[in-house]
Design a protein that fits this description.
The complex is a heterodimer. Chain A is α+β, with helices and mostly antiparallel strands. Chain A has 2 domains: 328 residues, no CATH class; 85 residues, no CATH class. In chain A, 47% of the residues lie in helices and 16% in strands. In chain A, a hairpin with a 3-residue loop joins strand 10 and strand 11. By secondary structure, chain B is an alpha+beta fold. Chain B has a domain of 228 residues. Helix content of chain B is 22%, strand content 18%. Chain B is globular. The relative contact order of chain B is 0.18. The C terminus of chain B is likely disordered. Classes of the chains: A alpha+beta, B alpha+beta. At the A-B interface, helix 4, helix 7, helix 9, helix 11 and helix 12 of A face helix 4, helix 5, helix 13 and strand 15 of B.
Chain lengths: 434, 508
């Protein structure tokens, strides 16, 4: 199994370069905010292990909200982030990036601070400006871009030849149907029109690190749990105190802002999503957030790595990143369906989970005991999310038209073909997927 | 708990409670305001029907709704208008992104609409007139008095005909409606609604009342100290110092949908190999009901709240048909109302709920793909138009062409979460419930996806294994017009009629 990794290159945009940069990034798109896979700056389509990628200009549009806490907004200079999710190791991917998109990246990052001085050392610069997420979610750990494409081609090929086979043997005879489909695939493979590459062996280093992480985190938590138990009355007392006194925001997002966001949406079955905002002031909130992100990251890595994040089944990749010396949080995701459907899923299915993390952000609807309230206040929650949302300048997804559920179905089709199916019921179930 | 007789029905327009089914004649008039002062004068005396039940049933009815521009022309201040939802303020066609979401692209694109194609083309108000058989002429004469003639300019009359509850394709129509919980008997708590219920919180349809989240939908609230004419408005339940302009009002969504009846039946007939029984079967699968209204979804033994247990056309859900063997996943009525609860089937107690809450215990890989229905319900008040054409006639190559269709009218409290969500995620969404390459078989457009993928098939899951697939569906329904309107409560209507015209001068 080939595990996935992430990168996120972050650099402050040079004074006066904003419009040049925006115009430059626009040349990469074929639709509003949607990348042309063959664009000359970063030809995303040529990276055969890149799932999704985007370029976003992080602006502190909601920085003033912190005034409600009696604080002056922290200074923030607009920052370009370039992030993506891919198969394999980070270092080799960054090297590939510098190799295949070197001139384009130089052009883009020349608009940023500290780059013009040493354009010769692109790779080194990329590595120095790479920020790791505090929590990361992958819909299906180990599913590679190659696998996605091969399984999609398999599904399409089977779907195209099934009607002819039904005409020949009838729809009732499921064993004959299966046999003919399997022969079809064999022929296609031999003709080089289909390939189903076997999964690569899991890298040993990753296996060991993963195991250590899997066991280590619970062990550490177990060790500190007595402390936490002792401290919990104080923790919850303080939490309730803060939750009661947190300012309550009910600010309607600006219509032009929504327009700017929605113009990018619903052009594919999937959409991109960025939110960026301040972490609530004080050490208490920051530590709470860090612990919860650790738990989230742990469960995403070891529990929710097979197509669902609690009840949400529409997220391909998501990450939570602390920035600006832990004063701000950036969340980026790739999800299926419309924005409204995504919001409603959050509210109706996992309000509690969202509250855990995001209630530590400024502007979030008030919570009780970290999990209650919050996103359950539908309108307030939708306003706050839209207000903190930022557009992507450029967004790329390697498999347009396919939802996360489509990917898992295609995998089931392939598995059903590769294993021996004994019962008619199993075969019929498999045939119904095609 | 409220007594039903306690509800403020006399301030509510009747359409929110009654469909005026016995008033078989209707006339939907789209109007522009020619003279605002005269219009207000007329509105003050307009015989608008209230929802208070009277006996005998009235022989005529009148309902009124305004577009945002209509309210503006009548002098409602911008600060007040800003309290409405963005969808209403921008309009159905004001924004290309909204059109894309609603599937108003290709042949449905607003540029081809006969009315409402851009915000400046949206009429100022819509009058819905209802009368008993042969009573419309007299009712229109009463309504269209001299003052009316001075006040309004008739933009268009949307055709409607009495097709006796059969929509133009030939199916019994208007069978499924939410049962409005006027007495607020049902909890809206996120932990109390695991299963499908047909009972719906008043606030999902009427502004100023708690919705299915137990919250009040955003609407214009007015400080009576700043605006004395607001004194006549009801108070806001969630903000007692303010007056509620939205209370007892609702958003009224209209879309004129042309139906290509010969096109539909000729396609279905061809696809069914010209075998009448198969033709009926395929058509029923596309709709999700037989022509007489019998649902394909399996009846349920236990009681669904808000549906009579012996109701032959509504006592069903899709819980026992997860694969779609009885009613295809993509069938029209399954898309329009998937009858889902807050949790997938199988939550019986605390433990199973806990397991499901964390995403585990799935019985099928395609479980839990569809959102909970209660947040996405519509109150339908549409009327059909066009000459009846039975399927047996429609399949003939020389079937008479005619304008046929539906004046689709729904009432909702939240246009984006209800109408737009249903239209986008459920009806025109190509990934609804895990389907691929298909939109609603009846009213979806057939444009390919931006990545080139097709979206013009319809599949019927089959217990034998391979799904039965119909390809290259033509487009059967085309949008011909539409708009978002606000149907005020009766006191709010008086407020509109009383608002000073100088207000609009100040803000413009």
């Amino acid at each position: 199994m080939m595990p996935q990794s992430t990168f996120m290159i972050s650099a402050v945009i040079r004074q006066g370069q904003m419009e040049t940069l925006r115009a430059l990034l626009r040349t990469m798109n074929e639709g509003v905010g949607h990348a042309d896979p063959r664009n000359s700056l970063i030809p995303f389509g040529r990276f055969d292990r890149l799932h999704v990628a985007r370029l976003v200009i992080l602006e502190a549009r909601t920085a003033d909200e912190i005034k409600a806490y009696g604080l002056e907004p922290y200074a923030w200079r607009p920052t370009l982030v370039f992030l993506g999710d891919f198969d394999g190791e980070r270092d080799s991917f960054l090297a590939e990036l510098a190799g295949l998109a070197g001139p384009g990246l130089v052009k883009i990052f020349s608009c940023c601070e500290g780059f013009a001085d040493n354009p010769g050392q692109l790779l080194q610069w990329l590595k120095e400006h790479d920020i790791r997420p505090k929590a990361n979610y992958i819909n299906w750990i180990g599913r590679t871009v190659r696998q996605v494409h091969e399984e999609d081609a398999l599904h399409q090929s089977l779907a195209a030849c099934l009607p002819g086979i039904i005409d020949a043997v009838g729809r009732e005879n499921c064993r004959a149907l299966r046999q003919k489909l399997l022969s079809h695939v064999e022929l296609e493979k031999q003709a080089g029109r289909l390939s189903l590459t076997a999964p690569e062996p899991t890298p040993m280093g990753w296996k060991i690190r993963n195991l250590l992480h899997k066991l280590g985190i619970p062990l550490i938590l177990l060790l500190v749990s007595p402390l936490f138990l002792l401290g919990s009355p104080i923790f919850f007392w303080r939490l309730r105190q803060l939750e009661r006194s947190d300012p309550d925001f009910f600010i309607r997002p600006d219509r032009d802002h929504i327009q700017e966001l929605s113009v990018q949406e619903d052009r594919d079955v999937s959409n991109q999503f960025n939110v960026f905002g301040d972490v609530k002031p004080g050490l208490f909130r920051l530590l709470t957030l860090k612990v919860l992100l650790l738990l989230l990251d742990y469960s995403a890595r070891h529990v929710y790595n097979r197509g669902f994040l609690t009840r949400i089944r529409t997220i391909h990749f998501a990450r939570w990143v602390l920035m600006d010396n832990n004063r701000r949080i950036y969340f980026a995701s790739n999800y299926d369906g419309s924005h409204e459907a995504y919001m409603d899923d959050f509210i109706n299915k996992v309000a509690w989970g969202l509250n855990l993390v995001f209630s530590n952000g400024v502007g979030y609807p008030p919570t009780r005991w970290l999990v209650k309230g919050g996103a359950e206040q539908e309108q307030k929650y939708k306003y706050t999310l839209r207000r903190h949302q930022l557009p992507s300048e450029v967004w790329y997804k390697a498999y347009p038209g396919l939802t996360a559920y489509d990917l898992s179905r295609n995998s089931r089709i392939r598995q059903g073909m590769e294993i021996r199916q004994e019962s008619d019921a199993e075969i019929r179930e498999w045939l119904s997927l095609i | 708990m409220k007594n039903p007789t306690d509800f403020d029905f006399h301030d509510l327009q009747a359409l929110l409670r009654f469909g005026h089914g016995q008033l078989t004649e209707s006339c939907f008039m789209l109007l522009n305001i020619a003279d605002p002062a005269a219009a207000k004068e007329w509105l003050r005396r307009a015989p608008v029907s209230s929802a208070k039940a009277v006996s005998p049933i009235p022989t005529t009815a009148l309902q009124i709704a305004f577009s945002v521009e209509g309210l503006r022309v009548l002098g409602v201040r911008e600060e007040v208008l800003a309290g409405f939802s963005d969808e209403f303020i921008v309009g159905m066609t004001g924004d290309e992104s909204r059109s894309r979401r609603l599937g108003d692209t290709g042949k449905n694109s607003p540029e081809y609409w006969q009315w409402g194609s851009d915000p400046s083309q949206v009429p100022h108000l819509v009058l819905l007139l209802y009368a008993q058989k042969d009573g419309m002429t007299a009712w229109r004469e009463t309504i269209e008095n001299d003052r009316f003639a001075a006040a309004f300019q008739l933009v268009r009359v949307l055709p409607t005909d009495d097709l006796e509850d059969i929509e133009p394709f030939g199916f019994t129509d208007g069978l499924s409606q939410p049962s409005i919980d006027w007495e607020a008997r049902q909890s809206t708590d996120l932990h109390d609604c695991d299963r499908y219920s047909n009972r719906l919180a008043v606030g999902e349809l009427v502004l100023g009342y708690p919705n299915e989240y137990g919250l009040y939908t955003t609407r214009p609230l007015i400080d009576p100290h700043e605006d004395e004419s607001a004194a006549l408005l009801p108070g806001a339940e969630d903000n007692p110092s303010l007056k509620d302009f939205g209370r007892n009002g609702s958003y009224l969504v209209i879309r004129q949908l042309h139906q290509d009846v010969p096109g539909f039946w000729q396609y279905v007939d061809r696809e069914a190999g010209f075998v009448p029984a198969k033709r009926e079967q395929l058509a029923a699968s596309m709709v999700g009901r037989k022509r007489n209204g019998t649902p394909l979804g399996p009846f349920v033994a236990e009681n669904i709240p808000g549906i009579a247990q012996n109701d032959p056309v509504n006592n069903f859900t899709y819980e026992d048909d997860p694969a779609g063997h009885k009613c295809p996943i993509g069938a029209h009525i399954r898309r329009a109302n998937p009858r889902t609860g807050d949790f997938p089937p199988g939550v019986t107690g605390f433990i199973s709920r806990f397991i499901k809450m964390f995403g585990f215990g799935q019985r099928r890989p395609d479980e839990d793909l569809i959102a909970s229905s209660r947040f996405h319900r519509l109150l339908r008040r549409g009327r059909n138009y066009g000459p009846i054409l039975p399927p047996e006639e429609a399949i003939k190559p020389d079937a008479p062409e005619a304008e046929r269709g539906l004046q689709f009218v729904v009432l909702v409290a939240n246009i984006s979460r209800q109408f737009e969500f249903v239209q986008n995620a459920w009806l025109v969404g190509t990934a609804f419930g895990g389907v691929q390459h298909e939109r609603d078989p009846l009213l979806g457009g057939r444009e390919p996806l931006p990545d080139g993928g097709t979206a013009d098939s319809f599949t019927r899951p089959d217990p034998a294994g391979p799904r039965q697939k119909s390809c290259q569906l033509p487009q059967f329904v085309t949008v011909g017009g539409g708009g978002y309107f606000f149907m005020p409560g009766l006191r709010a209507l008086q407020y509109i009629a009383a608002s000073s015209l100088t207000g609009s001068d100040k803000s413009s």
